[in-house]
Design goal:
Elements (H helix, E strand, L loop, with lengths): L2 H16 L5 E2 L5 E10 L3 H11 L5 E4 L7 H5 L4 E2 L3 H4 L8 H11 L6 H9 L1 H9 L5 E6 L9 E4 L5 H13 L4 E2 L2 E11 L2 E11 L2 E13 L8 H7 L18 H7 L4 E2 L4 E6 L18 E3 L13 H9 L5 E6 L1 H5 L3 H13 L2 E4 L2 H8 L3 H17 L20 E13 L2 E3 L5 E3 L5 E7 L4 E2 L11 H18 L5
Parallel strand pairs: 2-3, 2-10, 3-7, 10-19, 17-20
Antiparallel strand pairs: 1-2, 4-6, 5-6, 8-9, 9-10, 11-17, 12-16, 13-14, 14-16, 15-16, 18-19
Length: 487
């Protein structure tokens, strides 16, 4: 038996264990696999797309280039926005879909696609209810996440995106949806009819073996953004040069070439969002800023300099304007205890590495931070007075002036801006169909999540990213299953 035949037998055995309900076609390289729908990416968008398509009776296969599933979803805070009268009324929060739409559109500086935003808003609460059907549970309190504008963030009980990935991948397994890791999509397979391309599959390398995954109903791209492509990000926005990124190393945007090769439209790649991340050579970010009502930001003089509940682009510019682009995030014991276990661990790690501190008084904390204790004590005192008066000199909103920083011990960590989210990408319509340069859908090609563009305009609202992935991932799965491709 030749070496090639042995390799094929080993490869076939691997797939037989996981992809038992469909078949390979043999005889010539590359190997081929047939299914109804191929999903590229195993984060929130990919998993929801696969599950919604499978729920409509289609066979689905998920391709994941990394050795583990989850992508950026696995590393996200997991907070997801939705107006939710039942939860919000417990905390005397007034909200509506109309307000959610207005804030999302305005926060993106009126550059977002209003049709896509409307879908996002209308599907927000139903999507959370859909996720709950898979066993995902949310805490009762809804909060305003950093850059979130309004307290409508639903916090999963299993911290960060781990719960989403765990529960949804379990559901995929129960529904017979294989997830093939170590599988890099290289290009899209297509046929041409009357000058129009029809996507019929994906060419990939799976464990360095070429494979063609043929799809009857279509391909769904859910590969995430390109925040880990530091070279591209800094070329698009020179201010980002030298920054780290907060997400998964899988977010490189390498699928864009394949999309362009079949005529897909890319747009707004220069719109890149930052978030607070670690300093220098360190990789752990504390997350002390996640719940806006529990933290303040100060510069290296120990002074506040911005309303912490502002838009993310405003916060970015304010932080970059500080000496060295470095600031401190400060919380008290209540703020620390409210953090997820992962962020508490990151905070402890920052202490061990020398860019996080803990003390039983603000003065002692300032001494450890090497900032003016007089300034820091004044900053905290002025902020606490603003909580009482509901008037903040920096313009923080009254509903974000509810928690004093008063209970020891006190915690601080040094932070810099890091690349967090890319708002440009593949152009889609409300059915998650990929559009060509004439704004016509490419038959059998869909996309969802951070790999797409249109919803967030020039600035994404905190808590809308993972919502976008779930909403349009689910829509992409439904569209592919129903073959909604009429021109």
């Amino acid at each position: 038996m030749t070496e090639t035949a042995i390799t094929r037998r080993m490869f076939t055995a691997l797939f037989v264990n996981t992809l038992c309900f469909s078949s390979f076609v043999y005889g010539s390289e590359p190997l081929t696999y047939e299914t109804d729908i191929v999903v590229i990416g195993s984060g929130a968008a990919g998993l929801s797309a696969a599950l919604s398509a499978a729920g409509l009776g289609k066979s689905v296969l998920i391709l994941e280039k990394m050795p583990v599933i989850g992508g950026n979803t696995l590393l996200s805070t997991g907070l997801i926005n939705a107006p939710d009268p039942e939860r919000q009324k417990q905390f005397k929060i007034d909200d509506s879909n109309e307000l959610f739409f207005k804030q999302t559109y305005e926060a993106g500086h009126r550059k977002g696609n209003t049709e896509l935003i409307q879908v996002l808003v209308d599907k927000a609460l139903p999507t959370i209810q859909w996720l709950e059907q898979f066993g995902i549970q949310f805490k009762e309190e809804v909060i305003q996440i950093y850059g979130g504008i309004w307290p409508r963030g639903h916090n999963p009980k299993v911290s960060h995106g781990r719960g989403y990935v765990n529960f949804l991948s379990k559901a995929c397994k129960e529904k017979g949806i294989p997830i093939k890791t170590h599988t890099q999509a290289l290009s899209l397979l297509f046929e041409t009819e009357e000058g129009k391309k029809k996507i019929v599959g994906v060419k990939a390398l799976s464990n360095n073996i070429p494979v063609e995954f043929k799809s009857k109903n279509g391909v769904i791209i859910a590969t995430g953004g390109f925040s880990a492509n530091l070279k591209l990000c800094s070329q698009l926005d020179p201010r980002l040069k030298g920054m780290k990124y907060t997400g998964s190393p899988s977010a490189t945007g390498d699928i864009f070439k394949a999309v362009q090769e079949v005529g897909g439209q890319l747009k707004d790649l220069e719109q890149i969002q930052c978030n607070l991340g670690p300093i220098d050579k360190f990789t752990y970010r504390s997350g002390y800023h996640t719940d806006v009502k529990r933290h303040i930001l100060v510069n290296n003089k120990g002074k506040r300099f911005v309303a912490e509940d502002g838009l993310r682009d405003i916060l970015r510019d304010a932080v970059l304007a500080q000496p060295g682009g470095e600031v401190f995030i400060l919380v008290d014991s209540d703020g620390y205890q409210a953090l997820s276990s992962r962020f508490q661990q990151n905070g402890a790690t920052s202490e061990n590495l020398g860019y996080g501190w803990k003390a039983d008084s603000i003065k002692k904390l300032a001494d450890k931070m090497k900032v003016s204790s007089k300034n820091l004590e004044e900053a905290v005192a002025q902020y606490n007075a603003a909580v009482d008066s509901k008037k903040d000199v920096f313009g923080r909103e009254p509903w974000m002036l509810v928690k004093k920083i008063s209970k020891p011990p006190f915690y601080a960590t040094k932070a810099r801006m890091a690349i967090h989210y890319t708002m440009g990408g593949i152009v889609i319509d409300t059915k998650a169909r990929v559009l060509d340069n004439d704004n016509k859908p490419i038959e059998n090609l869909y996309a969802a999540g951070e790999v797409t563009t249109g919803i967030h305009g020039t600035n994404r609202v905190g808590g809308n990213g993972i919502l976008d992935a779930f909403v349009f991932g689910k829509i992409a799965g439904e569209s592919a299953a129903n073959n909604k491709n009429a021109y």
